[in-house]
Amino acid sequence: MDAIPVDPTTRHRAAHLGDFTVRPRMLLITGWALLVGGAGAVAALALLRLIGLVTNFVFYQRFATSLVAPGRAHHPWWLVLGAPVAGGLVIGLMARYGSEKIRGHGMPEAIEAILTGGSRVAPRVAFLKPVSAAISIGTGGPFGAEGPIIMTGGAIGSILAQHMRLSADERKTLLVSGAAAGMAATFNSPIAAVLLAVELLLFEWRPRSFVPVVGAVAVSTVCRGFLLGTAPIFPVATAGLKVTAGDTALCVVAGVLGGALAVAATWLVYRAEDGFARLPFHWMWWPAIGGAIIGLGGLVEPRALGVGYDVIDQLLTGRATVSLIIGILVVKTLIWALSLGSGTSGGVLAPVFMIGGAVGAAEGLVFPHVIPGFWAMTGLAAVVGGVMRSPLTGVIFTLELTHAWGAALPLLVSSTAAYALSALLLKRSVLTEKIARRGLHLTREYSTDPLETFFVEEVMDRDDTVLHADDSLDTALTATLRCGDAGRDGRRLFPVDLGDEDAPLAVVTRRRLLDASAKASVTGPATTVREVSRPATVVLRPDDTLRRAAYLFAEHGVTEAPVVGHGPGGRVVGTVALRHLLYARRHDLTEEVHRQRLLPRQGSGRSTVVDGSGARPAPEPARREAADV
Hints:
This protein is mainly α. The chain contains 26 helices and six strands. It has three domains: 23-228, Clc chloride channel (Orthogonal Bundle); 245-437, Clc chloride channel (Orthogonal Bundle), CATH 1.10.3080; 452-575, Roll (CBS-domain), CATH 3.10.580.10. Helix content is 59%, strand content 4%. It has a four-stranded mixed β-sheet.
């Protein structure tokens, strides 16, 4: 086939379009993310101080900003019962007349902003969310600060991004940078914050987003050291830590028990939400009813109120009494799940830490002693992995909270066991269920895009047919018919030799030739191929991936493109159409559902292929043929 010149501008554009990790943009977004990280740390400090202020004022009638547990001292029954109700009333009014986005525990709202709102968060949410969370937690709500700070930090990043000319993906990166920065500053857990961002917010692991988020988290963690210190939140002494094989096996049991509790708590949250939705009055009043539930629980176990960092510390260091363990396990789980279903404002991580630590501490009453708090740590990692469907985040969170790095393997076993049970029994997590109820779909499985694993040259139509610019339409149509059925369907693209080495690559479809021929037979003189051809909008290379081809097709609104080799003169070696992209998907489907026995049965002398239906298809074909199955 004759060499067909390619326009240098088109060639340059084709070589660079689809590269979505543009280095200058990544560095620019990283620079802005560093500022967002510092702001996230300040926001985390402000929220913690605001929670302390409200708690001290309501339960101790003093002005102080230090975090204090509501249940540390004895309070009148009317205060324990009435404070959460009053807090719920205030939150209901703020949500109705301020912004409904303050309802909930923060992470689903951040996910929804990413999925449907172009990562845009209203500025008022950055103010109302932490204030509402401080009121909710400060009046006894059994919630954590991390969900609100995720929404607040995310709002900071989003507001900054909205003042600049950025894409939705770049706004998402800054939103998640702020959210992760706030999380890292709250718990002094940079690695867990990054993992949480990847597993729950970014929906990708790519340099364009990962690098800025890490930069924001790093700045936030350094700032946190100056503002709140660098010590672990719940330090655990690991001297004498020696985990036997039997202990590791028991971690599976601990994980299953933690996963069962996670499943029950998740189920209870959404049954409560369904129950509140059936109430015959406005949702503005629901948080007050949730507050009444909190108050009743506080009368039974006062230590279940508030954030409960002091209780988590006792559980993880082995200092909790049996009565406290049982009280937290029962009361905290019930009041947290039921009140969260009312749509009040508050996070889920700190309650999950406490509930997980309690179930682990209860297991430690029966399981062999390892070190004080060991089984509480495994329970914490398990419940986080089961409730949030983020097993790695559960492990790293526990390690960064306690600095018990020697317990990494047991925590990984228990968290994964809980994650597996939760995935088997529940379709969605406590976070994604709320997203699904709003009519959105959120994937929780990461896998390689099959379009990334195939190259254009593996699926393209290889054809040496070249049309000449001065050919008549009848001659060109006759030439295209020699290409077989693919040429008769009217969709095949054919390169056109314009006879000028400096001319750009031109193409024409058989359908365009047919239409022009029909028009010429009625209206006038014959038309040549030159008059109906057009410059190629998209030019691909044999070593381009199908993913890049798909992006270019979508960007330019085309369904077929010529493939030009790397040799001298830019020789056209074939064409790729939209239908070829299915080859990769079919290959992926083949690998997932076609089952084979590759080694022969003993004594049979030959291998067999077994699929789920019991049929015996032929042995596995080569890669290209497998894509056609």
